[in-house]
Amino acid sequence: MATDIETVLQANEAFYRAFETLDIRNMDAVWSKADYIKCIHPGWVPRLGWVQVRDGWTTIFNNTSQLRISVCVMETTVRGEIGWVVCQEHLTALSGDRKTEGLVMATNLFERTDGVWRLIHHHGSPVLGPHEEERHSLPMV
């Protein structure tokens, strides 16, 4: 029998399969439809509730012709009916003839409902390159 950590990691893998294959039906299947769900894509304002969250994924999928994601899981935690995964996303996207590559730190929060782990929060933040990091760092006090 799979542990809670293993089943949260399986739910996380299903999320990234849906993301990488640009499949909105599979993305529909991994998300909770609760009013309190949230999704924060790098550079975007938060998407709140299922209608906005789904619209964000539809926008990404409609404007991306190909996507490759390599995920490095850094930590997985489960506390009762809530589990979360902290990971790095290495993304390569094609949109028409434009190629974009990036590194994103992500936190994916899952809630177990009726025995199934569903995504309730995804937050991705870009990792800045060394020169950008220096420009944006605050002095130590």
Count of strand segments = 6
Distance between the termini: 51 Å
CATH class: Alpha Beta
Q: How many strands, what sense, and barrel or not for the largest sheet?
A: 6 strands, mixed
- Can you count the helices? 4
CATH topology: Nuclear Transport Factor 2, Chain: A
Question: What is the CA-atom radius of gyration, in angstroms?
Answer: 16 Å
β-strand amount: 35-45%
The chain-level mean pLDDT equals: 92
Seen as an oligomer or otherwise, the chain set is single chain
SS-based class: alpha+beta
Tally of distinct domains: 1
Global geometry:
globular
Report helical residue fraction.
Answer: 25-40%
* CATH architecture grouping: Roll
Q: Strands of the largest sheet, in order across it?
A: 2-1-6-5-4-3
Low-confidence stretches: 131-141
Briefly characterize the structure.
The protein is α+β, with helices and mostly antiparallel strands and 141 residues long. The chain has a single domain, classed as Roll (Nuclear Transport Factor 2, Chain: A). 32% of the residues lie in helices and 43% in strands.
